[in-house]
Amino acid sequence: MYGGTLHNKVVFHTMKALNSFGFSVLRFNFRGAGLSHGEHDNGYGEIEDVRAALDWLDREFHLPMVFAGFSFGAAVGLRPACGDDRVKATIGLGIPVLPADERTYDFEFLHTCAKPKLFVSGTRDEFAPRAKLEALVSSLPEPKKLVLIEAADHFFEGRLREMREAIEAWLPPALALPRASQ
Fold first, then answer.
1. pTM for this one?
2. CATH superfamily assigned to domain 9-173
3. pLDDT value at position 133?
4. In whole angstroms, how far apart are CA 117 and each of 3, 36, 44, 62, 73?
């Protein structure tokens, strides 16, 4: 609805960060975005899209997974990822704690998410006012980390390198994967 796509620069750089640690990455458009079939379902059907993607990754690779979502993808995807034992850690980029329209997102499910959680946002992200984002993250159980990229907006314009470095710096300590321990 708002231009979200698997070709977004934030999504691309996140993929590169995860690939650098040997993860297979699946980027996909939610229903009705880009060339995908279906219609936008206000986050309900999109949760099922994430579950289908996790199931496909498990069937194809049967490896531990890290879920990463940007903006709407984070707001929708963190819910099924937190509840899925195959997902070992989660990353929320540009999490929209204050959406621009009438939408609201309920992040209460994060209060029971005990897996490692990384949140990366820009200090100028119009959908994630610093105080509101810090309050959310501070209320969540450990392990968790919030990285604020100075002067970055919602799309990390001009700050994609710092965003990618934040993910790469967090991955090894957050996961007990064989590659990370060697």
1. 0.86
2. Alpha/Beta hydrolase fold, catalytic domain (3.40.50.1820)
3. 96
4. 26, 29, 22, 21, 15
Q: What is the CA radius of gyration of the chain?
A: 15
Judged against a pLDDT cut of 70, whether residue 180 lies above it is answered with no
- Taking alpha carbons only, the member of 137, 147, 67 closest to residue 107 is 137
The full set of domain ranges for the chain reads 9-173
What's the angle, vertex CA 16, arms to CA 46 and CA 151, rounded to 5?
Answer: 85
Amino acid at 127: F
Predicted confidence at residue 64, as pLDDT, reads 85
> Strand locations in 44-149, DSSP E?
65-70, 87-93, 117-122, 144-149
Query: Kindly report the CA angle at 142 between 138 and 146, in degrees rounded to 5?
Result: 50
**Residue that has been written with the tokens 């498990």 in this structure:** 58
